[in-house]
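Thread: quick sanity check before group meeting

JM: Hey all, I'm pulling together slides for Thursday and realized we never actually wrote out the predicted structure for the chain we discussed last week. Dropping the sequence here so it's in one place. If anyone has concerns about the input, flag it before I start.
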Amino acid sequence: MPGEKNFFQTFGEAFAKGDIFTKVSFLVWGLGYIGHGQLMKALLVTLVEGLGLYFLALYGAPNLAKFGTLGTVKMEMVFDVTTMKNVVNDYDNSFEILLMSMISFVVIAALIAAAMMVVTSNYQLQKIRAAGKKTNNLLQDVNVYLNEKFYVTLLTLPVLGVVVFTIVPLFILIAVAFTNYDQQHMPPNDLFTWVGLSNFFTLFGGGGMTSTFGYSFAKVLTWTLVWAFFATFTTFFGGILMAMFINDKKTKCPKLWRTLFMVTIAVPQFVTLLLVRNFFSNNGICNTMMANAGVTDFLHNIGLLDKGLSYIPFLTQPGWAMFTIIMINIWIGVPYQMLIATGVLMNIPADMIEAARIDGASPIQQFIHLTIPLLKPTILLTAIMSTSGTLQLFDESVNLTAGGPGKATMTLTHYIYNISFVETPKFNYAAALSVFILVVVAVLSAIQMKVGDKRD
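JM (edit): ok, ran it. Output follows.
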């Protein structure tokens, strides 16, 4: 009904007009501590509830009232008959409404938590008084939070930082995935609104795989999964084998070899990728060496290289680019996995390996039947962790091939960046993709924690 007010509008107007009951109501919960000698908690809870309700009254109420529609009035020039001038109307901003609404939800949750904390704490204090014991005063409370509960004092600021800089943006990201926030609905000039699950239907081919976005997503997702598989297992098992070779008693100067491979970790990956991109370019040093060594002609003869090419298209043809990126990742990733494997291999009893050797087990049998079973918990944890990280990798795709050729080597994270800031902005699809990655990584993390618990 026109003119009908909801709860948030009524509360906001009452607070703004100076209703004494509205302005003082938040004091009731906080001051409930004082009767039990909990002045410090009373002041903190009162401050939290006071600031929270002030924010809700000033910003939360008007934005929550429009949360269901994300605004109805677009920004435009209107003619004011009283001043005979064109003025900008009192417009809505969909993103501002969404932002303030999400912050308001977090504030409401904090107020409810504070109220529950007051009730619980007062009940505990009442039990202490009933038992004939004395409750703490202000100085004793301060002493408790500087000694026995000092961890609470230290963690307060980081927790607030996580809420402000992680949880609130995460909620906004998830919310944007259910809107039509794109180039055609860009605030403040235009509004965006809720569209339900339509972005996810488009994401997974609900609009037909011939559509540009659905086809591109399927192509990018396929390469990302292939990339994640090969990047994870090649580097991991390569790291194990490298660690075994270096730590073998027959290897001379193991510290030197270990140091040489660790140099790849010391050099920033961004710099390494830029140098490697120049090495493997069409006119780079690798192509020059391959041509001089006759490798290019050999590839022509066996049909792996087009006759019209005088170079190997390491980064400019889809198949070659995929292969090259995986090989480069092995060079970058194996030393890191080697360090992890070295620490685990040192914990394998030497007498167990010696006993297997005396019993006639070959090095391959020792690796399959002895080393791998002992490394199994670490292998699972590291594989899950590496897969989660690989799904979010961005550097290789951007610095080596810029996602090309034809998005053949573009990963999901690069694709999100691309449709947000390079192509025509589609923030709704980018958010939907981010939610998809979030769910996958969350599942992998849950599995990792489960495996870790079994290992303990």
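AS: nice. The two ends are 61 Å apart (CA to CA). Residues 127 and 400 are 67 Å apart (CA to CA).
JM: adding both to the slides.
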